[in-house]
Each structure stands twice: as structure tokens, then as C-alpha cells.
Predict the 3D structure of the following.
Amino acid sequence: MSGLSVTCPPEKVGFDSGRLARIDRFFAAGTEAGRWPGWQLLISRRGEIAHLSAHGSRDLAAGLPVEQDTLFRIYSMSKPVTSVAVMTLYEEGRLLLTDPVATYLPEFADMRVYESGPAAAPATRPAAEPIRVWHLLTHTAGLTYEFYRQSVVDEMYRAAGFDGPYPAGLDLAACVERWAALPLLFEPGSQWNYSVATDVLGRLIEVVSGRPLDRFLAERIFEPLGMRETGFEPADPARLATLYGQGPDGRLVPIPPPPSRPALLSGGHGLISSAGDYHRFTQMLLRGGEFEGARVLGSRTVAYMTRNHLPGGADLEEFGRRVFSEVSNGGSGFGLGFAVVQDAAKQKDLSSEGEYGWGGAAGTAFWVDPAEELTVIFLSQCIPSSVQPVFGQLRQLVYQALVD
């Protein structure tokens, strides 16, 4: 979004300018060392943008810098957006969180759970519990991702064509049908496993609303909030940052871009956005569902979404499968689309109880801290984020700059 700028001196909202400068020095050094091609950071407190910085390139070969209006593939930062969209339907009474997903997507009736055996001939049993809407929102449905390479079910996802880029030409409905035909990793509700669940939610939105996912997100979230640069296609391809991976020698190498108009509208990882646009989304959350006169959700709904929903108040370390995380999952639960800090000391990272957020595969991250009236957005384009993790250092560097 053009015109993005700092709106007040950092000291006015409790930051120390000298300490904020540590953040830029740290990430600039990482860029110069070849860890990231470039990045953008936005820190807001009490509704004011207190810090806005960018460094490095959005395209190394062309020598184009990251600018305030650069567009980024936000990958799994799409998930909170899709989760909010589902809850707009919930607020209208059009679904219940306890509804079996098969009520709307019949392909999820009669699901089976993997027990043993190879991918080509697995032994399965009928699921005792149907997948419900809240299982999808909390990633407790028993679905998975193919890239984990930890279980036979992951292998079955790859054998079904989900290995790297999703099968060419398959739309969201077709992908969901393929996932539903595969066995579950575990009984719904019994564990947490990060998965394609949010993509299934995108299809649920389409069926319940009768609208394509891109149109529904635009009508319910992007247009009311003035997020004019967020969608499944770049608003301006010339401003879209190039995506990079790490070559065999450790150097950053460009990854060929996908089609400008994807066949799969992925509510789990498909959105492109800008710092300015995503800031508007986080401000809506921080303000209890409303921003600049546009109400997307009720305040009680936002509060409900951003509390820990894991059974018995468990955290992700206790209840979750061991999958990659840049920071400790101890002390962090999961709500309806967000990780939620419930014990900052156990997490072993500077944070506040009640803070919530998520990240994306290409080195993007955000969080909202209601206790501090704080939102933070970091955007880069280096995949996978596990190659150059940023979230831990970003958190500690932001919080050490608060001095009020």
C-alpha cells in the first residue's frame, strides 16, 4: 500500500529508538551475509506505526530493492485470514464448530485412521469420531502435509500427487476430494498436527457460502478493511518479490514463479499481500474485530478464537506431533487459526501471555499482543523458513526495545 509510513515517534508509544535500531542492524547483517535476499518490518503499538524498515533486494538479479509497497507471498500467514472468514459464517449461524465436516463435504464421511503397514497396502480402521469444523480450525483433524516425511500417511499424500507443487490443473475441490480419500494420521481430536486442514476450510467456505474462496475473502475481509493488495494473484506483478531457495553451495537461488492465476485457491498458503495490507488485518484483530469503521467479527468471537483450544489446556509440545518450529512450542497452545502463548516462561522466549500469531514458509511472521497493544509483521522471501529462521530473534529484539 502506497503511503505507508511511521505515524509517531517510537518514544511516544514506549519504545527506545536506539534499541529498535538493534533490530535493523541484526537483520541487515543477515542480508549482507546472504541469509535473506531482503526483508521488511512493521511494528505498531497503540494503533501507531512506531517502526518501519526495509533492507536488501526484492530481486537480486535485477538489483531491485525491497520497498514499502513490495508484495510478498505470505504462505501460511494465509491461514489466519481463512480462519477469520470461516468465523464470519459461524457468526451468521450458518455452521456450528461441532458440525461434522461431512455435513457440507460428503467426501469426509466414513473416514479411516491409519494403523500399520506400507503406503501401498495400509491397514486402517474406521474413525470413531467424525472430523468436525473445530478440528480443522485447530489442526486436530488427523490430516497432514506431505513434506514432513515422518509417517506412512505423509508418504501416501506424496503418492497421491502432493509432492512439492500440487498436481497441475487441480482446483480446490479436487484437492480436497483426494485428501479425503486418504487415511487419517490419528483419531480426530486426539493430537495436534499442522496440516492441509485450512485448505479444507477454504472449500468449506465455498460450499456453505456458495461463493468462490477468492470472492468470499474479498467481500468479507479485504474490501471492508481496505486490503487492496491482498489476493491469490499479485496486485502489481512488478512489485512482487522474487522467491528464493538455498542452493547446494548455500547461496540464494531464485525459484521459478508459479502461474499468476493458480488453479488451486489455497486458503492455507496461497495469498500474496503487503506489509500495509496485513497491518490492517492485524489491527482489526487487535481492536476486537473492527478497523476504521469496518467490523469483520464481533469482539467476543476474536477473544474466543485467540484462546487456547487444545484439550485440557495442553500446549503444542505436549499435544502436538514433532514437526518443525523455529521456537519452542512449550507454553504455546493453539486457538482457532493462531498459536497462542499461555505460559511465556515455559516458552523460553520474551512474549506476553495471550499473544497470538503465526508465520509463513518463506520467512514471514506476525503476532498480535493485546497486553502490550502491539502488532509485529516481518516479511521476506526465502523458502523454507527453516533454512534461515527469524522468529526467535525477532521476538526478543522487539520486546527488548519496549521500555515504558
Remarks:
- Residues 17-32 form the longest helix (16 residues).
